Amino acid sequence: MDSLSEVVALSSFLTVAFRDSPNSPLSLVSSGPKAAKEQQICDSPPACFNYIFTTFGGENGKDERTLDVYTSADGIHFAPYVMGAYVPENSLLRDPSIILHDDGWYYVVHTTSWNGDDFALIRSKDLKTWDHVVTIKIKLTDEDLKVEDNKPRVAQSWAPEFFRDPQTNNIHIIISLRLPSPIEPKPDFEMKTNFAPYIFTATSRDLKSWTPGKQLDVIGLTPADSYIDMFVIYNGSDKATPYHGFMKNEVEKHIEHLAAASVEGPWEFVQKGDFAGWGIKEGPAVVQKPGGGWRMWADDYHGHVMYADSNDLWNWTKMVDMPDGVSRKVRHGTILRQV
Fold first, then answer.
1. What is the full DSSP assignment across 101-135?
2. pLDDT single digits (tens) 179-236
3. Secondary structure class of 36 (helix, strand, coil)
4. What is the layout of strands, in order, in the sheet containing 51-57?
5. What whole-number distance in Å separates Cα of residue 160 and Cα of residue 121?
6. Cα gap 115→94, rounded to integer Å
7. pTM given for the model
8. What whole-number distance in Å separates Cα of residue 21 and Cα of residue 159?
9. How far apart are CA 230 and CA 162, in angstroms?
10. Which residues form a coiled coil (predicted)?
């Protein structure tokens, strides 16, 4: 080196390179409103946003028809990136779940109605402009899948959640379904069964084709039970049961914990009741943190999303509000961690 200025320049370059590495302990140092605001000037979201939160609610937390996108550097402080990013023509938009597909597109699947028999997918390259991909009429058998009709097979379909299985690379949607009561001579859509989790699997890379829905095999689940909002994650360090699920007991209104050796089950309850002491909660969404451990967000019913942390998926901290006034604006959605 011929000068002090060259040494300083090289030092600055190496610091920036190290900070921006995904494995760098400095990569998530910036946090809070300032960091979130700085992200908004980035023209390449996949390279800029560590966390993306797709939700609904709007400025008053009550809008059920618009997609809102928030971003964060640290998974704690979220700021609006695009409010009202998408409005469907003829349906609600609740419970949006997001993935980044290997085709380079972000896909969101969402609830379309309080009393619907379908789910809808939209996609975007930049998180700002979204297009409708497909609305899937729910069918539950191979025979039904061959029939082109508008006959309803389910009475309610809530909270579809994406899950990409790292063991198979299959993309699944897990959704809470309520069937019409099987009363002769025809099903009764007023007297419904209780909710249970069902799984669909994509059969085309463009996510326009899906298998019939299949009820997940949950040990001990009876017709008297009712469960919604199942969120599945994969924990490779758990060799026996790497698949973990969190879903809301719709009767007691608590989030409960399940585990399985396969995404299709059999699933077994491993923590029931209000095991974490969170009280009434719904809509869990879980990500693995970069330095290890897990973070869960959940809605307490009143447009009030909170989060808690765990080192092992079994023992959790107390739930606290999302900071910066975001907690009361957002509703049930999904957080995508990119870095």
1. -TTS-EEEEEE--TT-SEEEEEEESSSSS-EEEEE
2. 987 755 566 666 578 999 999 999 999 999 999 999 999 999 998 999 999 999 999 9
3. helix
4. 78-86, 63-72, 51-57, 334-337
5. 10
6. 12
7. 0.85
8. 35
9. 10
10. none
